Amino acid sequence: MTDSNYLGPRGVALLDAVMAIGGDLELPAVLRRIVEAAVTLVDCEYGALGVLAEGADPPSLVEFITTGVSTEQRQLIGHPPHGAGILGLLLSDPMPLRLPNLNDHPEAVGFPANHPPMKSFLGVPIRVRNLVFGNLYLTEKVNEQEFTEDDQNIVTTLATAAGVAIENARLFGEVRRRERSQSAAAEINRKLLAGDEAGEVLELIAAQARSIADAQIAVIAFSDPDGNQVIEVADGQASKALIGIPLPLPEPSITVPLTGPTQDAVMSVANLAGGQGFRPNVTRQLQAFASQAALALELAEARRDAEKVILFEERDRIARDLHDSVIQRLFAAGMKLESVSRSIDDTASAERIRVVVDDLDATIRDIRATIYSLQTLQRNEPLGLRARIVGLAEQLSPILGSSPAVTIDGPIDTLVPEQLSDDLIAVVRETLSNVARHAHAKRVELHLVANDDELVFEVRDDGVGFPTEPAEGESLRRSGLSNLDARARHQGGNFEISSTPGRPDSDGWTTHLRWQAPIVRS
User: Fold this and answer.
1) How many Cα atoms within 13 Å fall on the side-chain side of residue 265?
2) What 8-state DSSP symbol labels residue 102?
3) Are residues 447 and 409 part of one domain?
4) Higher model confidence: residue 1 or residue 258?
5) Are residues 504 and 396 both part of a single domain?
6) Which of 250, 266, 293 is the last residue of a domain?
7) Among the listed residues 396, 392, 394, 370, the one whose alpha carbon sits nearest the alpha carbon of residue 383
8) Least confident of 83-87, 94-98, 117-121, 494-498
9) Between vectors from CA 517 to CA 514 and to CA 519, what angle results, nearest 5°?
């Protein structure tokens, strides 16, 4: 145990202060505790900690934490100092500075309006890894004319311990931001894999960027025809009011490129005017996240292009099959019927056969027209729902281990409205992704039925099954199933899943999923 008589009252107070500032890993809280501890140790009225802007030339303060000055006084004083006058002495020469009256010093520049009067002054640098992180500024020694040498020594010792606490907090912040960035990137990938709209994903990117940077505002801007970066997505305070205005945002802010399928996009985070600035490590984390997000968007764009290629290849195959097989068989059937009709004496029967032959000729012409339309399809033509589902099933075949069997009944391209189509594509994608990740199935069957009243999507697989209820004392992660259920309820439908692990039904299926939604025409 520590002998308080050996340390003395100030030694015990210093030890308590060191323990206090080391008891938190949040950097803003650590910095405030340092200022408050210093003020208590030397018994003064006002204290501040100025954080240096890394790499700035000349040196300047990017953050200024105070104690002893009320919120109302800070608002009346205005913008925090950047490091002029006496404060600048420690920036250019980071050594302890003790003054009986700072106003008498030749470097003094005076105080702004509404600033409380101050005379006695003690300034001590705080070093982290032998680099100056910032400075402690203490003023107005209580009941004495000036700070003593003992005050200087004890604050210098506190500053040494503060450097260690700051470094620990910075490392913790780095780890936490990295975790946030990785989690955010995973969520963005999941949204893109589930087929969410690009606008929703961009909104998620902005929200995650604001969280990573601990910022008040985050926006994504795109170039307009005049070359201005105009905000199209915003998250945070007054976000709606920011839509449509050009960058830059008010300082302090960070802007990083977000180049992907849409060129000249940028992402920017900011705090309100006069707010806390951003340190370089935050900038690096935001740049890394922006790169991951841009790559995810680019991969999503490439995936959509791949779906189109699959569709074009499938249409080419269908066109070849129709021409090489179906038309030839119909033509041969027509020739045989014509030959038979010549040997029939019954005029009425012969006429009926000629009508059938004419119908076959008309069918051949229709098929040829269909082949022509398939082969002359413009590459920028929007994909129909049927083609999107078939293409999606083919695209996910590699991760499923085999091509799922797809059957579609009903004219879904004309019956299913656009909003329901988008939800259905997301449901198909998420369902097949879940099967690929968890089921280890050898067979997967998709069945889609659309009529005037409803749309029903069913999936069966012969995999290991899915635990529809958690075991006792355990939680069941059902985020994917929750998404399917939420989409069904949003459309006014319902979602069901049944699974019998290890007990396949008579057809060999172990899991059956059914997603239903009514078809409502506007």
Assistant:
1) 21
2) G
3) yes
4) 258
5) yes
6) 293
7) 392
8) 83-87
9) 140
pLDDT at 471: 43
Instruction: Confirm whether 167 is domain-assigned.
Output: yes
pLDDT of residue 181: 65
Q: pLDDT for 129-170, tens place per residue? A: 778 888 899 999 998 888 999 999 999 988 888 888 877 777
Percent share of the chain, pLDDT over 90: 12
77 backbone dihedrals φ, ψ, rounded to 5°: -65, -40
Residue 21 shares a structural domain with residue 117? yes
The answer to whether 69 and 116 have CB atoms below 8 angstroms apart is yes
Residues 188, 287 within the same domain? yes
Residues 6+ apart with CB under 8 A from 15: 2, 7
What domain range includes position 518? 384-522
Total of domains in the chain: 3
C-beta of residue 175 within 8 angstroms of C-beta of residue 87: no
**Angle (nearest 5°) at CA 257 between 254 and 260:** 150
Instruction: Return d(Cα 409, Cα 447) in angstroms, integer.
Output: 8
Residue 148 sits in the same domain as residue 192: no
Sign of the dihedral through C-alpha 460, 461, 462, 465: negative
Decide if 91 contacts 83 (C-beta within 8 A).
yes
Residue in this structure with the two tokens 């902005």, named with its chain if needed: 206
Please give the DSSP secondary-structure letter assigned to residue 435. I
Report how far apart, in Å, the C-alpha atoms of 351 and of each of 332, 333, 343, 357 are: 19, 16, 12, 10
In this prediction, residue 139 carries a pLDDT of 93
With 70 as the cut, is the pLDDT of residue 22 above it? no
What's the longest Cα–Cα distance across the chain? 134
Classify residue 150: in a domain, yes or no: yes
Q: Cα separation of 124 and 130, whole Å?
A: 14
Neighbours of 322 (CB within 10 A): 17
Q: Is 46 helix (H, G, I), strand (E, B) or coil?
A: strand
**Same domain for 144 and 57:** yes
Between 172 and 198, where is the model more confident? Answer: 172
In angstroms, the CA 392 to CA 383 distance is 12
Rounded to whole angstroms, the Cα distance separating 86 from 98 reads 11
Q: Is residue 156 part of a domain?
A: yes
Order across the sheet with 454-461: list the strands.
405-409, 444-450, 454-461, 511-518, 494-499
CATH number of the domain bearing residue 195: 3.30.450.40
Mean pLDDT of all residues belonging to the chain: 78
CA proximity to 245, closest of 264, 263, 220, 208: 220
Based on the domain organization, do 104 and 239 belong to the same domain? no
Q: What are 420's two structure tokens? A: 């329901």
Looking at 133, 149, 173, the residue that finishes a domain is 173
Do 136 and 217 share a domain, yes or no?
no
Domain-located, residue 256: yes
